[in-house]
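Convert to structure. Protein one:
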Amino acid sequence: MTSNSAGGTQGLQSPGGLSSLYSRYATECGLVIAILAVIVIAILLDPTDAYLAKPLYNAKEILRHASILGIFAMGAGIVIISGGIDLSSGSMIALSGVICCSIILGLCQYTGLVDETGNPITANLPTWIITVAISGTLGVGFIVGSFHAWLITVVRLPPFIATLASLVGLRSLGRVLIQDVNRVFTPNANTQIYIRDAAYKSLGQEWYIPLVICIVVALVLFTLMRSMVTGRHLYAIGGNEDAARLSGISTEKKKWLAYCIGTMTAALAGILYSSYVGGSMP
């Protein structure tokens, strides 16, 4: 009996048990429960019963928007874990939408995809144009992240000040850029760019595409932070940067990586927002 009781107790306390799994991810489970509670309360308090009238449609919309938010939130989380902060995520999202649409307009002009009045034809675009635009936008995110890391590690500005400047500067740059791009490629200086290509718009309008991208980003970052030495170094820097430096960790390079991840995930979210609305209007 004693042996059986001990064996039973060990079975209940095994690492694979539900109780140990919950205790290991108690914070994450709590967040999921809180999100579900907010959704239930919103459904109950909705006077028009819109959630209950179209439950599948609303579930898809919630998944779409939560996925896009989650993409750049995970990038911002990496920055916070490393002991920094990035206030410029919203402005980076706005700028990345402008950059992506501007590249599309420029490539349309370069390849002769224009109508009789000289306006770019943004419908039925070749796949390579969209691919180049997305790659270029992610490249801009990489450059902005590198600039943040340079300001913080070389110029020695506090992360709050460095990214606060980008918060104002990036959105202002987007507003100026969108007018100049329209002035060059179209007859007037509008403050919006519209992309009519169905494939581009489907990136944000098909609910499952942002969800799949969010899951892929989550898996990549989970692997980075839980299974790689770089992730442990980022945790160490966030806990005590001086101790991490004295232990031989290259804190400047790891901060550079963290800020690049933050801005590139924001750029990716900006592309999805831009495709969702069918253009850019920062």
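Protein two, convert as well:
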Amino acid sequence: KNASALTSVDLGGREIDDGGMKTIAQGLSDNKIITDLNLSYASFGVVGIRAIGTMLSCNTTLTSLNLMNIDWSPHCMELLANGLSKNISLEDLCLGWNGINDADAVVLSEGLQNNPELKKLWLMGNSINAEGAKALATLLSNDQLSLTTLDLERNSIGSEGAQALAVALRTNITLKKLCIGKNSIKANGAIALGDALRINHTLEA
């Protein structure tokens, strides 16, 4: 089909290599129709991510991007975050199950600090510890942003990370859904979150 006739492209599970991803990204750079792009379980790597980052820096239509469980490698987040820092349309970003670590989370958070459109950020099943959670908490503290969903389930943020999120939740007025199950959060972390929820009246789950 002609790309101009599509609003959603689902390439999940396809064998898309770096060359294929470059071609797709180039085609989407100036596309004004497609809003949803699913590239989960694809096989492209850092070259493909660079192409996606470049595409995000100039695409003004894409609102949903799924990059779950791709061939993630060092430098991928830097390339992606660079594009996200210039993007003005993306509302839903899934980066689950990519082995994303604390350093990646810091870079991602920095790239999203000036991205007011993003509403949903899915980071489940990664390798984010306390330092990464602290970085992500800055997204909740930034009153210029409007995140409504943050999924950190099945990471390793622990009580220290939970406490950082709790501090941010005390002043955040946009987040409605926070998923932090299976994160080795002990009593002190749970208490901090409980105290924050007495003040935060926006969070629903």
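The mean pLDDT is 96. The CA atoms of residues 156 and 183 lie 5 Å apart.
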